[in-house]
């Protein structure tokens, strides 16, 4: 899957493919003139010396394995990561995607443990995954500290003993092709691939990381084994261990576990490697657009295909990660594209030309690039957007930048580094990425020191050096028209005749047989948050955490889309999206500057039952974060011009959603389950968004944004009494008369029979299927039983019954999972999977059979015990992340569970009996009364 983190070396693993699920971290997007409002920059951030490598020890074993260890005692967990220096840069046409294919095969078992490794990781309660990028492939897991040795043993085993046979390869090739076809559903992916190929015609960086379907289909066992022998050896790897452990003891264990592994005898000599890469030069032909017209450097690459919104991407080649110009290039990018006061945001989004715009600098081992992208607003020409974007660059090149802009960018860079290194997994990621890409785990420390030295003249110089028009390639995606009646198709009758028998469930005893020994654990008492209410009814939960100089704000306002009426669906979201667009005393740019100049962030997003408030800051800037939150809660004024721009963005986003199989499937799924008068039935339409007036937004804000409808959680480096005083001071005048609005949730019955829907989306390659019905609420007494049942059924793609059957045994899907969306009210139970259109019917039939099997026969005690260990261990691991613990504390309060739930949750899971779980299976799994929605290209697309 794509693993992307926009900023900093920790993560520029842009367009990387991970094994399961999709992690797309949205960037903030950007603008043209220097911002007219410049708040005072946080000098403490700009001048503060930072280090992410303090307390890191580097050890090189006799066999060449590089080991990086860092003791972090903030939580009883440890992250183990193994980074191999093999990625798509080691490929050529014919073997494009083989590193990614090999990554998948490393989960298929070893000679000593012939079992899906995902099941072993799940049994350990490990938060595990893997990804392939341009320069590396990495495997990572975070576990409770007593399971460190077990995780090391598993990684050492698959470094040398991976099972790669013909049968498993053929099955996993189908999974990889499903993954690739899923990305093909996104026009942005297809456009990026075309532009990168044009920028790097003779470099492996122009190849797609995941490869092509044609190459993947032709991989042989011998080819995959050869890559394994050549690259999976100690001298080509870096082992990173970060967390709660003793360094000397752990190094002794590592030496015992990994030190005996020999380096495999490479069959891929340096000359052969160079010959392999030279194939790129021979294989590349002049680029052409969809009309087969020859392309030249300054002519846009044009994709005219089915889609929703026009977009563009521009790419400039840059030097490699260790080039001295990289820090100045990053400062330049932040000035151009980071935040509301950036130049591209002002030029493109505030002007109404684009609904989305931004950029990033990618710095890799051998080269780099600068990517700028924009999504056109309705009726706006891509050529005009491209022209404005180029004018912004030209203005920077000719007139330079201000010192205030440079200071703001430096503050953002440094705050981003601190905030992205708060949790143990991310700290290990930073070290692994720096070592394998830059060749030095201390790279980020050097980088931060270099950022401090960047001047306004440096920014202007690198812009003139690298952003020359003749060096760039630009691509336009121009969507073709979609027939009006193709959004909903008829039920596919052939699906009702498929019948497959699910295989037997995996015996947990078989999994336990291959688990390494686990040390005994010493329970750690978890600190509970302080909980109180302000005099106006606003509920607050505070959890001090001195481990990093940061604060996480997580808030909940009972002002979600459950309050929308169908004729004005989208009102709650439009209100939340406009909260930061100005108050009675500050306009939008002033609000943004007060945060951005300190590297802080505050955002609001509406969902069904509420509005999420998410904020981050350095500890010294917590007063500014709270003051901004208090201001927008009490004084938002929703300027008409900003509201209209937000409406246009919402309309564009709606078009994009209606071009997404996953979004279309979810919309039809819920509207089939819930009647029109139910809050879960309502979704925005173009008509409903156009009906919303500023008066509607103001009225909604005044009615629903009340202190007695707000819960606020703060986790981080602060003194609780000082925060309490600050909150009371900032919010003491916020009062709301009368009682808060209520919502009617009518009773919903299960369908009388199986209901099928098949919306058709032209131009797609993969189908998304949702299966389910009305589920349970969080306070349902069966919730803990349902959670354990779901973990066994489909809680984990690699270890659950659904994953074992549909993904591993049959190879029908890249990912399948299930969950109960249990909130304040009963959300749906659903199963979601991604398949090829021709495989959808078989996957649905197999899933139905498996549901029937669990409904009738229940689960075993061994399965239940394994699920308990997995969920309770995973819970401990998740709470090592400040974001996760803040959210957990908040939602416990939202559901009225009390602060003690944070500590009691594992005990409640462990008290569930097998009888209770199997009773829940009888009551909650109903395969004969299920809604099945499959959105995609339709069966007619199979033979195209």
Description:
Helix content is 41%, strand content 17%. With 944 residues, it is of the alpha+beta class. The strands form 4 sheets. Strands 3-1-2-7-8-6-9-5-4 form a 9-stranded mixed β-sheet, sandwiched between helices. It has a 6-stranded mixed β-sheet with strand order 15-16-20-17-19-18, sandwiched between helices. A 5-stranded mixed β-sheet has the order 10-14-11-13-12, sandwiched between helices. The model is unreliable at 1-17, 19-46, 281-295 and 483-499 (pLDDT under 50).
Short description:
By secondary structure, this protein is α+β, with helices and mostly antiparallel strands.
In terms of topology, how is this protein built?
Elements: E1 2-4, E2 16-18, E3 23-24, H1 43-47, E4 56-60, E5 66-71, E6 77-84, H2 98-105, H3 117-124, E7 127-132, E8 137-144, H4 148-160, H5 166-184, H6 187-199, H7 213-218, H8 221-231, E9 237-243, H9 247-258, H10 270-283, E10 301-306, E11 311-318, H11 326-337, H12 343-349, E12 354-363, E13 368-376, H13 382-399, H14 403-419, H15 424-438, H16 443-453, H17 456-466, E14 473-480, H18 508-514, E15 530-533, E16 539-544, E17 550-557, H19 571-577, H20 588-596, E18 601-606, E19 611-618, H21 622-635, H22 640-657, H23 661-673, H24 686-691, H25 694-704, E20 710-716, H26 720-731, E21 755-757, E22 767-774, H27 783-793, H28 801-809, E23 813-822, E24 826-835, H29 840-857, H30 861-878, H31 882-894, H32 901-910, H33 914-924, E25 931-935
């Amino acid at each position: 899957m794509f693993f992307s983190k926009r900023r900093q070396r920790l993560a520029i693993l842009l367009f990387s493919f991970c094994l399961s699920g999709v992690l797309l971290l949205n960037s903030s997007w950007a603008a043209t003139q220097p911002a007219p409002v410049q708040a005072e920059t946080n000098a403490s951030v700009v001048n503060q010396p930072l280090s992410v490598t303090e307390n890191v020890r580097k050890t090189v074993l006799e066999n060449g394995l590089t080991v990086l260890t860092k003791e972090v005692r903030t939580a009883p967990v440890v992250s183990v990561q193994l980074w191999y220096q093999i990625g798509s840069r080691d490929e050529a046409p014919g073997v494009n995607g083989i590193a990614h294919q090999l990554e998948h095969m490393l989960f298929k078992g070893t000679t000593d443990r012939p079992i899906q490794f995902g099941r072993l990781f799940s049994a350990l309660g490990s938060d595990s995954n893997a990804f392939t990028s341009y320069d590396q492939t990495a495997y990572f897991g975070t576990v409770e500290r007593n399971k460190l040795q077990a995780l090391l043993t598993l990684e050492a085993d698959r470094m040398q003993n991976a099972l790669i046979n013909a049968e498993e390869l053929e099955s996993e090739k189908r999974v990889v092709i499903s993954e690739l076809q899923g990305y093909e559903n996104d026009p942005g992916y297809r456009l990026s691939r075309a532009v990168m190929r044009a920028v790097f015609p003779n470099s492996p960086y122009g190849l797609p990381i995941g490869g092509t379907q044609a190459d993947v289909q032709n991989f042989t066992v011998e080819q995959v084994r050869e890559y394994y022998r050549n690259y999976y050896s100690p001298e080509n790897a870096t082992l990173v261990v970060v967390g709660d452990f003793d360094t000397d003891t752990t190094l002794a264990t590592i030496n015992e576990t990994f030190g005996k592994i020999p380096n495999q005898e490479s069959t891929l000599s340096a000359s052969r490697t160079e010959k392999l890469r030279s194939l790129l030069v021979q294989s590349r032909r002049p680029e052409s657009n969809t009309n087969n017209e020859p392309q030249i450097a300054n002519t846009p690459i044009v994709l005219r295909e089915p889609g929703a919104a026009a977009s563009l991407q521009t790419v400039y080649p840059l030097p490699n990660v260790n080039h001295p110009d990289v820090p100045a290039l990053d400062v330049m990018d932040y000035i151009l594209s980071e935040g509301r006061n950036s130049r591209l945001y002002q030029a493109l989004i505030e002007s109404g030309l684009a609904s989305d715009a931004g950029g990033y600098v990618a710095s890799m081992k051998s080269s780099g690039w600068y990517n700028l992208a924009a999504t056109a607003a309705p009726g706006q020409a891509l050529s005009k957007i491209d022209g404005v974007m180029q004018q912004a660059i030209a203005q920077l090149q000719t007139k330079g930048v201000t010192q205030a802009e440079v200071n703001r960018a430096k503050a953002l860079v440094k705050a981003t580094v601190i905030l992205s290194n708060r949790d143990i997994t991310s700290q290990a990621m930073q070290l692994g990425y720096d070592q394998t890409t830059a060749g030095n785990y201390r790279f980020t420390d050097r980088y931060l020191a270099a950022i401090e030295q960047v001047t306004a003249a440096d920014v202007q110089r690198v812009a003139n050096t690298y952003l020359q028009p003749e060096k760039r390639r630009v691509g336009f995606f121009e969507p073709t028209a979609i027939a009006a009646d193709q959004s909903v198709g008829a039920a596919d009758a052939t699906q009702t005749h498929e019948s497959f028998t699910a295989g037997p469930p995996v015996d947990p005893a078989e999994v336990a047989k291959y688990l390494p020994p686990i040390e005994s654990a010493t329970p750690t008492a978890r600190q509970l948050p302080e909980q109180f209410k302000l005099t106006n009814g606003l509920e607050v939960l505070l959890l001090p955490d001195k481990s990093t100089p940061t604060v996480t704000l997580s808030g909940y306002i009972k002002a979600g889309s459950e309050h929308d009426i169908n004729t004005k669906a989208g009102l709650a979201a439009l209100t939340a999206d406009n909260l930061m667009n100005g108050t009675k005393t500050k306009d939008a740019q002033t609000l943004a500057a007060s945060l951005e100049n300190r590297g802080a962030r505050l955002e609001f997003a509406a969902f069904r039952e509420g509005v999420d408030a998410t904020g981050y800051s350095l500890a010294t800037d917590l007063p500014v974060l709270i003051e901004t939150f208090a201001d927008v809660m009490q004084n938002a004024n929703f300027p008409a011009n900003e509201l209209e721009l937000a409406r246009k963005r919402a309309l564009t986003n709606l078009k994009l959603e209606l071009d997404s199989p996953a979004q279309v499937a979810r919309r039809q799924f819920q509207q089939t389950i819930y009647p029109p008068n139910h809050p879960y039935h309502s979704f925005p339409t173009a008509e409903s968004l156009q009906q919303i007036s500023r008066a509607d937004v103001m009225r909604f804000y005044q009615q629903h944004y009340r202190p007695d409808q707000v819960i606020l959680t703060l986790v981080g480096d602060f003194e609780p009494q000082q925060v309490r005083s600050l909150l009371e001071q900032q919010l003491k005048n916020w009062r709301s008369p009368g009682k808060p609005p209520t919502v009617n949730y009518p009773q919903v019955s299960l369908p009388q029979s199986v209901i099928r829907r098949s919306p058709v989306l032209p131009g797609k390659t993969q189908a998304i299927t949702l299966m389910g019905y009305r589920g349970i609420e969080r306070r349902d007494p069966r919730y803990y039983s349902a959670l354990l049942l779901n973990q066994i059924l489909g809680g984990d793609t690699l270890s659950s019954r659904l994953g074992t059957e549909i993904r591993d045994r049959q190879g029908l899907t890249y990912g399948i999972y299930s969950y109960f969306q249990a909130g304040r009210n009963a959300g749906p139970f659903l199963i979601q999977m991604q398949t090829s259109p021709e495989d959808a019917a078989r996957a649905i039939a197999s899933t139905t059979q498996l549901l029937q099997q669990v409904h009738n026969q229940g689960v075993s005690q061994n399965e239940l015990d394994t699920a308990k260990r997995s969920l309770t261990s995973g819970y401990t691991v998740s709470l090592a992340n400040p974001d996760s613990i803040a959210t957990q504390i908040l939602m416990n309060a939202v559901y009225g569970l009390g602060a003690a739930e944070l500590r009691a949750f594992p005990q409640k899971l462990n008290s569930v009996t097998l009888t209770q779980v199997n009773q829940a299976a009888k009551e909650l799994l109903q395969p004969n009364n299920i809604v099945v929605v499959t959105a995609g290209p339709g069966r007619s697309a199979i033979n195209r």
